[in-house]
## 1
Amino acid sequence: MRVRTRPEHPATGAALAVVGGFLDAYTFVAHGGVFANAQTGNVVFVAIHAAQGQWAQAAGYLPIIGAFVLGLVAAEWLAAHRRLPGLHDPTRVVLLAEIAVLVAVAALPASVPTLVTTMAVGFVAALQVTTFRLVRDTTYSTTMTTGNLRTLVTAAYEWPTGYDRTQRVVALRLAVIVLAFAAGAGIGAVASAPGALGTRAALLAAALLAVVLAAIETHTRRTAATEATGAVARRSGPATAARTTAGAPRPVPAGVGAEGD
């Protein structure tokens, strides 16, 4: 089930990929070398430590995985209850929640355990990856790049070989997404360094999400206005045609003069 079914503009997808890469670098550089977006590494670490009998170390990754799962459940709950007041477009709720959590994380004092931050980022990453799944008609991920790379390489192979030339668009879209993710990771690494913004770097991701929210809101309003105008035109069309027909002069039968003689 998708929280948001309308495909995103490529620029929106790229901006969200920048945020995804940024947050991965942010938690890794500023918060203990942990990747909070994708849970593959965390599951592997749990298995490795458990196999070595290091149960305390293994258990240390479980809260992050749990926060990610909670974010997935929250996103699906929003999708299932979109008929409730204020939830007809859960995208707004998701982006506002992301922004609020990241601003709160940036405001946390240094004494707060790193686990709190990584759990918060894992939660919002799950919200984002569940909510945004399509750029135009191409499936993609905003918080991890493995699937994007696989689809990109497949499309890049099928396009020049002539097997499927329509894959050119897919390859170009995903190339932009992958590069945007990498750029976000680079920016996040620099901004999150101890000599730079450190933990306050989360504000940069929150600011970019605010821009995305504003762009989506503007597009949604324009689309609604266009649809409303089209609906009015469709309703008034038959009525206008009927009035025009009723007011038109009736044809004069053959053999009858203008005066009816």
Note: The radius of gyration is 27 Å.
## 2
Amino acid sequence: MLRTTLSRAKCAAAWSSTSRSVFASSTKRRMKRAMNKPADAIPFTIDGVRTGVRLCLPFVPGYFLFGAAVGALAAQKGLTFAEALLMNAIVCAAASQMVALEMWRADWTWLHVLAVGGVAAMVNLRFVLSGASLRPWLSPVRAGFVYPALGVLTDGAWAASIRYNAEGGRDFGVLAGSSVFLWLTWITAGVPGYLLGALVSNPRAFGLDLLIVFAFTATLVPILKRTRQFMPFAVSGLVALAVSFLTPGYWFVAAGAIAGALAAAFRNPKAAP
């Protein structure tokens, strides 16, 4: 009886010692993870996603205007409905899609493909600066999470997110929610424009060929109101117009962009980046 009791006591002591050892080891691991966890870790919440969607609601009418222009032009250029939707989903950049569709042709060469790609890249260079401006906020977020959101980043999502962060917000869900929401909006926005463009045999008779001009004008007006720097825009427009008359192709896009950037740099050389 005594031996049995002693044996049980030893087992209990051994079990207790093992349990404490396991608990202590687990505690050390949790403490180590807590110590290694960055103090500025960025949260991701459903509330943040909802906030991102809410902040981007004012951009929806403009997206449908752009979508109508791109969809109608895609139909005029002979793209199928599926091809137009796929372009919206993969490219997700209204300005470069418009330029690419303007350069669309029935017979393609590698030189023409490179030209379209180069012009589209020139139009989208602004996203390099957009991504760089988000780096201080999103640097702690894992690349596997942040880059998919940046892959569908639009001007509206960037504007809403950067303003949210400037006001003290840190939830990554805001950027993810706004980016995905406007991406889905852009895909949907091309549908009515494509159907309209496919039904109209002579778009010029109804002024549909001016949709691109109206869309770019709608983008330019709020930028001018915000920056109040009219001179670089004027220089860019005049140089682009002159180059379009002097040279064939779409060199006026690059020339206008470079001229406008140089004009802005010389106008305010001491401005902080």
Note: The two ends are 85 Å apart (CA to CA).
